[in-house]
Amino acid sequence: MHFxxxxxxxxxxxxxxxxxxxxxxxxxxxxxxxxxxxSVGAVSIPAYDVFLTLVNGxxxxxxxxxxxxxxxTSFLHLEIPRFxxxxxxxxxxxxxxxxxxxxxxxxxxxxxxxVAGVAMQSILRNPLGSPFTLGISNAGAFGAAVSIVLLxxxxxxxxxxxxxxxxxxxxxxxxxxAFCLLATAVILLIxxxxxxxxxxxxxAGVALSSLFTAGTMFLQYFADDxxxxxxxxxxxxxxxxxxxxxxxxxxxxxxxxxxxxIANRWNYNAIDAGDETAKGLGVNVERIRNxxxxxxxxxxxxxxxxxxxIGFVGLVCPHMVRRIIGDEQRFLIPGxxxxxGILLLASDTAARLIVAPYVLPVAVLTAFMxxxxxxxxxxxxxxx
Amino acid sequence: xxxxxxxxxxxxxxxxxxxxxGFSINEGEVVAILGPNGVGKTTLLKCLNRIxxxxxxxxxxxxxxxxSLELIEIARRIGYVPQRVETGRLTAFDAVLxxxxxxxxxxxxxxxxxxVDAAFRRFGMEHLRLSYIDEMSGGxxxxxxxxRAFVQEPKILLFDEPTSNLDLKNQVEILSTIREIVTQHQIxxxxxxxxxxxxxxxxxxxxLLKDRSxxxxxxxxxxxxxxxxxxxGVEVVIGELEGVPCVIPKCLxxxxxx
Lengths: 384, 258
Description:
The structure holds two protein chains of two kinds. Chain A is mostly helical. Chain A has a single domain (104-380), classed as ABC transporter involved in vitamin B12 uptake, BtuC (Orthogonal Bundle), CATH 1.10.3470. In chain A, 73% of the residues lie in helices and 2% in strands. Chain A has 14 helices and two strands, in the order ααααββαααααααααα. Chain B is of the alpha/beta class. Chain B has one domain (3-89, 137-233): 3-Layer(aba) Sandwich (Rossmann fold), CATH 3.40.50. In chain B, strand 1 and strand 2 (15-25) form a beta hairpin. Chain A binds chain B through residues 1, 3-9, 11-13, 15, 263, 266-267, 269-270, 272-274, 276-277, 279-284, 322, 326-328, 382, and chain B through 46, 49-51, 70-76, 78-82, 84-86, 88-91, 93-95, 98-99, 101-102, 104, 106, 110, 113-119, 121, 129-130, 132, 145, 148-149, 152-153, 158, 160, 185, 187. Chain A: InterPro entries: ABC_BtuC-like, ABC_transptr_permease_BtuC.
């Protein structure tokens, strides 16, 4: 066939640049939000100081690496000067130990839940698809309840802030994660027996969710006061629970999941065009469905186990992005990642502010913040 | 000979849908698969590019056995246009660009963009490039789906009832387009159809399915009123209009009031 007469379509390229511009704008906005989020709280830190601390912190770490290299090679003596006149370390402790990990956890969880949501909507061919459709969050909550009530990790101590602390968070996290994996395995087994059709997956998810919810209720019924409080507390997703170590694990898992989904963007486009079209385009639809489900489930399981249940982000962010830049997965996947980060970070910032000095868990706020925006977008319809 | 099918059998669970199907297709040929509802026309079509996996039989594609080819390699040689086209919030250009998927490595290249652009010109749809497909009419959508299969640069195009749900003008337009690209690029097209008259007008050869197997395979001359009656169970008269045979069913019951 001869297609030599085709030209590069300028109007289409302009159209795609506009989409990339939206995404880049979102990333820039996310950075500004990050600075703002770190600067506000019980102690106010000027935004410029936050910026300097972050930049200088990064420079210090690069210098550490450079120093190591120059020791090894003994002829390179590079050192990047610290930025700005104020070389003060006044805010280092608050920023590096408390606020930055929390903000980064919000971004990582938002990105992860949102990218899992966009993938599930495609995999299940269902606009109501979300990371929790398959019952992962309920499985995680049940796992936490098992750990707290049956394994006795649920004695609490009151902290100054009045929050409760689970005395063995690692075991709780581990058991929650194990149950998330169990739920995923059951779904995969059903997919293996009955074929990975969207209807089967959605219904299996509904069944599993109910089952784990019933199990959690059963345990709660027999739990004593403190255990009950700990179980309920655990299910309120809170990004403040993550330290640097949890953050690293979450960050790596989320990054791998994002890369996987971006690499498969054409396959998801094909599946969106219908199973038969996708197969006609050489896509192994069943395998892409199963693999996508596993990746989405894993990233969700890690986030839920570390932070608790954070609803709404995975469902709503993809739809917000669909209404701004459309359904084409090349733009939708990165767009949803950015939107997820923005929504969860903004929610967390608000959650720390609205009833200060008390700090709300972010899960309470995501729905408050997400729902009105979502309804507005629904009413407004698509961008022309 | 571009495609040949031999002793093809297909089972849905334990029920035999297709039994001992065999035929071949040449370059530049439009073949229509005809037969009553539920006889397995679509099933046969889907076996041709392994959307469905036949139980036994050999399908060879330019001499290569279909079962030995990777799915992506099949997609580079065979394009498939389903009966129902799913829409979404994306532009026609994006939708057609998806047809390049079997050839795309990490990302699209200038070449892909040029090919898609050429396809829009070829189908006279330049003005629709940046229209959203969820706002398109059935005819426009069908053209987008055909363009998508076309930019796969296949040697064979498969169509599952390309004219169902289309008005008269669009039916004629779509089928003339298929006819043209097949002749011009010396590829082949196989389509399942219900409308015998459109099939007789636009296809070169006909495969009539009855009772899980091929009742008849041949050109226009082979389609007689006797054969149609045997396959569809309806008495028909075959006339001729502008040199093309034309099938008119006799009334099963006298028209009301007439």
